[in-house]
Design a protein that fits this description.
Helices cover 41% and strands 21% of the residues. By secondary structure, it is α+β, with helices and mostly antiparallel strands.
């Protein structure tokens, strides 16, 4: 969906030459077997590549797919942690990667170029699915996990301003332009479904000097512990919101799109291995916003490795087993 810094699982670098070009990544070496999914190892003999964007949640989700494929018998190349949304997306479009968990709002706005999101999450997913099939990408049914944007403020600072909604933020920006400083990522600062569109929707006109661009991991600490920015761009599934006791302002005008996670599969791969849809369906069904906060917190707060977080969860749920 968006770029966030996360820890990638570390393994030996492998270079694999395929018909789609030179690809770098790390082979999954986990000794795992089917649990409740992948029985009979329907992917035995397959060579598949999984990818993700470079923020913790998406790296976890990419590893979830990779481990499911591995347990089902495939040889899996891990190309998670690619920079930005476009690089991971293009890898799947071109067939340089076979699968990732992507986000419906990102697809609709950023990839497919629509200005207005669809308010109903299911209709949003269906619209993305129906249009993106023409690009060689098949979207499987989505999770309820909704990783949308928000602006957050520390409770200490909010004791002074009492900001509950983005309309409150817009009113403060009009009354006291110097007060509203925001820390955001580069991508959010330029995307139509990010800061420019939000300002337009809420009638804000923040001076350029009030907008500070930085890595997402720094944003949370800057909002929590410093006065360099009053508000910061956060994501509703991020475990650091609760850990740092931040107040999240409500998107009362419902500007931000639904960002439901769903498996986006290279269509030719799915045609060859249709069992992928059946294997991922029960996994996706378990992915909620609350679960994402829990898993993300393990990485971003506790410092655990995303690959191990993904593996531990799959084992706990019984989707895979240790071999």
């Amino acid at each position: 969906m968006r770029t966030r810094t996360g820890l990638a699982s570390v393994a030996a670098l492998a270079l694999v030459l395929t018909g789609c070009g030179l690809k770098s990544g790390s082979p999954l070496v986990d000794e795992v077997a089917p649990g409740s999914v992948g029985k009979g190892q329907p992917l035995k003999g397959a060579s598949l590549t999984v990818t993700s964007k470079n923020f913790s949640e998406n790296i976890i989700l990419g590893n979830i797919i990779g481990l499911i494929f591995k347990a089902a018998g495939a040889e899996v190349l891990d190309r998670t942690n690619l920079p930005g949304s476009i690089s991971a997306r293009e890898a799947v479009v071109k067939g340089e990667a076979d699968a990732l968990y992507d986000y419906t709002g990102t697809a609709w706005i950023t990839y497919l170029g629509h200005a207005e999101p669809i308010a109903d999450p299911r209709k949003q997913w269906k619209a993305v699915r129906d249009e993106d099939i023409g690009n060689g990408v098949t979207w499987l049914p989505p999770a309820t996990l909704d990783n949308t944007y928000a602006l957050a403020i520390s409770k200490k600072n909010n004791a002074k301003y009492h900001l509950k909604t983005l309309s409150d933020v817009a009113a403060l920006a009009k009354e006291d332009p110097k007060a509203v400083t925001v820390c955001v990522e580069n991508e959010f600062a330029s995307r139509d479904d990010g800061l420019p569109g939000m300002q337009k929707k809420y009638g804000m006109k923040l001076p350029a000097a009030n907008i500070k661009k930085m890595d997402a991991g720094i944003i949370y600490t800057q909002v929590n512990k410093s006065n360099s920015c009053l508000l910061g761009e956060v994501y509703t599934t991020d475990g650091r919101i609760k850990a740092m006791n931040l107040d999240v302002t409500e998107d009362d005008e419902q500007f931000f799109p639904n960002y439901n996670a769903a498996p986006a599969i290279h269509t030719a791969t799915l045609d060859k291995y249709p069992e992928i849809a059946e294997m991922l369906a029960p996994v996706t069904k378990k992915l909620t916003t609350e679960l994402a906060q829990e898993l993300n917190s393990k990485v971003d707060v506790d410092g655990e490795d995303p690959h191990e977080v993904a593996k531990d969860w799959l084992l706990k749920e019984g989707f895979i087993k240790e071999d």
